[in-house]
Structure prediction request, 843 residues.
Amino acid sequence: MIGRRDILKLTAGSAAAFTVLGLPNAVFAALPGDRRFVVVLLRGALDGLAAVPPLADAQYREKRGALALPAPGEANGCLALDKTFALHPALAPVLPYWQKGELLFIHASGNGYRTRSHFDGQDLMESGLAAKTGLSDGWLNRALADLQHGNRRLGLAVGGAVPLILRGKVEVASWEPPGGLRDASPEFIAALEPLYRQDTLLGPALAEGLKAQHFSESVLGDDMQGGRGFGPKNFPPLAEAAGKLLAAPDGPRIAVLEMGGWDTHVNQGAAQGRLAQNLSGYADGLDAFAKAMGEAWRQTVVVAVTEFGRTVAVNGNDGTDHGTASVLLMMGGAVKGGRIAGDWPGLARLQDDRDLRVATDSRSVMKGILRDHLGADRAALDRKVFPDTQGLRPFEGLVRV
Amino acid sequence: MPVNSAALVAATRLGFAARAGDLETIGRDPRGWALAQLRRGAAPLPSNLPSSASMVVAEFEMRRDKGDLEAKQAFNERVKEVYFAEISARMDAASRSDTPLPERLCHFWSNHFTVSILRPAIRGYAAAFEREAIRPHVTGRFHDMLLAVVRHPAMLFYLDNAFSIGPDSLIGVRRDKGLNENLGRELLELHTLGVDGGYTQADVEALARILTGWSVATLKEPNAGSFRFRPAAHEPGAKVLLGRTYEENGEGEGQAALLALATHPATAHHIAFKLARYFIADVPPKDSVLRIAQVFRDSGGDLGRVTAAVVREEALWRTPFAKLRTPQDMVIAAARVTGFTPPPPMLVNSLRLLDQMPFFAPSPAGWPDTAADWISPEAVLRRADWCQTFASRLPEPPDPVALAAASFGEALPEETAQAIRRAPSQRIAVALLLASPSFQRR
Prediction:
């Protein structure tokens, strides 16, 4: 039994204290072997070719153009992973996990659909379906139905409302940082600014407000901002708190975190810039989560997915547009990592002449994790969790059993 | 003006915002839709909310037993619970009502006759004031509302009249206590004639004298916690207010004076101006104000007819949406279009951070009513923060494109519609709709 006080106790000592919504009566069941499973939803479409660049692909430099990253050893260079792939320099905080064999990437991964709409893509990524059918529950909730025994809560949504992936018949808990208002995210402000620009009342006020905010940030430093907003700096404290909750003996076992800021149509940047800042918050968050898990990290699998990838080529605004395949990350003490899994389709032949093609369906990855890490039943995975996917085999050998 | 945009005006200006289906319901007869609501008036709020008298008594008892810390804590808990229940009921009425115009009128009049918890003694019943003294009268007679307001414990304590003693009254002589002219002044300046309504300091004092004895029954008196006229505190003798002599007549003096103030031509103009500014524009057309004031005078302050005059003003339908939504309006509108009302503590906290916590107006003048008062760099950023926070908490984010269509018809600028379609997630798309210049205005 975990109550409000316990959670305050758990989070005491961290930068942010957290309020609990719907937790006081929650009881979390234990999974076989006390395993933990976390899904991170990267909303907005992460550029997989930037996060884990295929430096040795013959087409890479030519097709990526200005977005191609410097090789390991050069200034702001990538961090070498294997003969073909490297890590974006901003992801340095997770390199030690690669070295320990706890970090794995599946490149050219995608979902079972082809859409370039964020709304549809995220909907399908979370529902686990291949087409929109109006079904409004999520695959992780359907998976939970068979994992938990009786009326116990295993699942936890971190950061606000329960996302579609966790919605459904099985009750889950949710919690978020305290306080009434969270700072708007840079991507939201960036979309709002052009709408306000022509507005004689709102435009100047927003511009002045942003100027003042930048000033106060430069005076107060980033430390004063963490945990209270929607931007990349908010992710590490959120992830750390989630780690503490999952580490607790009576805590939840399955959690979903979300992070936005990936829709880099404009000024994406290469080794530095907007995307690099987001990657940096992401990596710090994964690291903070792992550290907060303590001993429980050994029984943990984190998987991070996005709704689709981005175009290989640079667009007219030094950014990238909506694409197809991206990169999937798995991290945790239970992950058989230190390698890149899955096939690499190469950059010679592209989807629709513009996108990285899908080599691995992320649903087969999820099936592999659910079966091998959490002991889910194959038939349920094929029929219920991911309906009508008998032909899609679970990805083998992802976790230490 | 196309039918659809007239319906949008009605839903936005006379109501709070268009829910899915509202624009179709209002349809081709937006004036008729509004006028029918005026014939019905404001529906009462749920009856489980406690009366102000019971909360006044609870407050009196808490102060009588002031050494009893447990009782004090219990009272504070009770006050919090009641406040949340009141805000929740008021919010639901505004965001779910099929007849939003009377709800909007409740907000207008409750702000006109502001009582604020900045005077903490009234924290238990400031919201009850709106239910009891304002709500029943929003389409009735102004004079009846004024009388209900001045007799209400919240107003009597907020503007100190409960403690105002005629210097020559029995109690005044015995205890050497005196007049408090706070209510007398605000009645003239804010509630009736207006600051330019042609009264003097002598009139303020005369009205204060007239109202001495208007107080609240103590625990030792019958009907504790309700209005009580206390003759022993009433200043004896004739008083001269606005050139008219009021002979000594106890409580009757105040009743007569309030009737005279309620029907005064300056009052008609002052109310007409505030209504026009609230419903039409920050700087309302002068001739609109004159016509509304004329209806006020002709009808003896019949607020149903006065509001109908506002509805009939061409300017209401023609002026572009130039009024900025106040934070409360924005929150209500967001709840109305999305169908999601945050739980009361969250709701109240965000209104506090947006600087418009319900029943916490900064002064007896109430919340300001022009865009300039609500726009500052910090305030605009906080609105954006609120929109994203609210959208992140929606239990199930609606289809943003359908939401935009339902709440704006075809009136949303293409640039905004495009930004919504292109947003990186549904929640950000909803946040963009709410923060957009179109949604920030009414």
Observations:
- The longest helix of chain B spans residues 69-96.
- The first strand of chain B starts at residue 214 and ends at 216.
- The CA atoms of residues 108 and 320 of chain B lie 21 Å apart.
